[in-house]
């Protein structure tokens, strides 16, 4: 599995970073791959994983300069790893804003998509132009980029 871990570059933000690192510590296994965003995540990486080769990328001093281009780069490289069967899942660990006082560390699986089908199936045929595979091949990186950027 791949974990994209987003932390801050600076401290003095309460339990913001420690909640993310603690959640990552419970979920990340020894052979999992990491992409780290933020100085605090980079400095705590040794608590998460022993094999430093499993840290694929790290981005420091991103702060307010986090761009859609950077999110697209991360999404593209992550999806390439998935297509090459190097990883089986793309996850993101981040802080979800609840209110000004409470931010909760959360983990979300970005890919493969988890589709819940609790409705009756409809037997309709949808035609894609170009093929459905081609549409998905182009749409999935955009989807991943948008989720990472948001």
From TrEMBL:
Designated gene of the protein: atpG
Protein origin, superkingdom: Bacteria
InterPro entries for this protein: ATP_synth_F1_ATPase_gsu, ATP_synth_F1_gsu
GO MF annotation terms: proton-transporting ATP synthase activity, rotational mechanism
A Pfam family annotated for this UniProt entry: ATP-synt
Protein name: F0F1 ATP synthase subunit gamma
Family, as annotated: Belongs to the ATPase gamma chain family.
Subcellular location: Membrane
Function in brief: Produces ATP from ADP in the presence of a proton gradient across the membrane. The gamma chain is believed to be important in regulating ATPase activity and the flow of protons through the CF(0) complex.
Organism: Mycoplasma anserisalpingitidis
Keyword terms, alphabetized: ATP synthesis, CF(1), Hydrogen ion transport, Ion transport, Membrane, Transport
Membrane topology: Peripheral membrane protein
GO CC, alphabetical: proton-transporting ATP synthase complex
């Amino acid at each position: 599995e791949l974990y994209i871990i987003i932390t801050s570059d600076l401290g003095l933000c309460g339990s913001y970073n420690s909640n993310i690192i603690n959640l990552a510590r419970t979920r990340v296994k020894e052979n999992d791959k990491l992409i780290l965003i933020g100085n605090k995540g980079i400095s705590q990486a040794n608590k998460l994983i022993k094999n430093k080769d499993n840290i694929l990328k790290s981005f420091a001093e991103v702060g307010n300069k986090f761009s859609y281009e950077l999110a697209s780069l991360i999404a593209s490289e992550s999806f390439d790893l998935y297509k090459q069967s190097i990883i089986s899942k793309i996850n993101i660990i981040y802080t979800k804003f609840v209110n000004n006082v409470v931010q909760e560390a959360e983990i979300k699986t970005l890919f493969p998509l988890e589709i819940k089908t609790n409705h009756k199936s409809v037997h309709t045929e949808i035609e894609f132009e170009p093929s459905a595979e081609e549409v998905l091949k182009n749409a999935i990186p955009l989807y991943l980029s948008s989720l990472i950027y948001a």
